[in-house]
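Weekly structure sync, notes
Attendees: PL, DS, HV (note-taker this week)

Item 1: AzlD domain-containing protein
DS walked through the input record. Source organism listed as Kaustia mangrovi. Sequence as pasted into the shared doc:
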Amino acid sequence: MTLSLPTLHAVLAMGIATYLTRIAGLWVLRHVTLTPRVRAGLDAVPVAVLTAVITPMVFMTGPAEALAGLATALAAFRLPILAVVAVGVVSVVGLRALIG
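Item 1 (cont.): predicted structure, written out as tokens:
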């Protein structure tokens, strides 16, 4: 595999942009007081992103993934997010082995 100079520049530029975006967010949050409503909205972002990533897979693949998605959704009502991810991974692997 070869890495051309324009590709290297693009990767470095994306890394710098990502770093600056994160630092800017931390800087802004240091100087702004968040209202409870905004804090609640920010607390919901990880769940929303996880849902947006997983939902297409659940509806566009086979029955094993659909059943694993159901198990994961049910687990989400009671468990913390890391446990929910673990339930999803274990259930999809197990169901793929059983169902195919």
